[in-house]
Here is the input.
Amino acid sequence: MSISPASLDDAVEDALKHAYAHDGTCLRFTNTWCIVLADRDPEYKALLNGSGENFADGRPVADAIAKRAGMLSAHVRGPSFFEQVLDRGRVAGVRHFFYGADEATLAKLTAVVAERYPGAIIAGRLAPPFGTAEELCAPELLDRIDIASPDIVWVGLGTPKQDIVATRVALELGVTTAAVGAAFDFLAGTKAVAPMWMRAAKLEWLFRFVSEPRRLWQRYTVGIYDYQRIVWRDRRRMA
Here is the structure.
């Protein structure tokens, strides 16, 4: 997979450039689960290696990219990226659209953004009905996004659905998109965020696992095993 060796600051600057250009770029945030799913599903792997850019969200992925590129850090944490683009985009009047979650979460998110980042422009928000990635790209839904004239569309639908939808929206509407997972819930306060010391110790995954074991058990048990298997397989290939 192609993953950009970028720092968080680099990724934010890159996102703002794409937002201003309206060039239809999809930004995705890659963790070990993404790599496991891509290894299982050739279509998903092709999507991640197609149009758009991938940043290293998960710590193991970020550490591997940083080591290969000779960087101190290549960690682009999706929720941190989300907040920094909201903050820095205020100067140029970047128009944001939130797509995903439910209406209650989006309402809280909009209120928090208004309080924490005054002047940030929320062009619109849409909590779509439950459905497949194809259904979430229906013309009537894309029209509701398009009519708001956003500069960047934030997609929070969970992996891999959000990557598929964000890529499709970028290509169909020619707008920058970013698939940011649980970032909506974290900023809205509907899900707990790992304390800073756990993030610094690279234990955010453990906090999330304990917080949502029923939803995330496969990602942090079978997924970790499969990721290590992929790493060792690729090391043997490169030896």
About this structure: The longest strand covers residues 95-100. Residues 222-238 form the longest helix (17 residues). The mean pLDDT is 93.
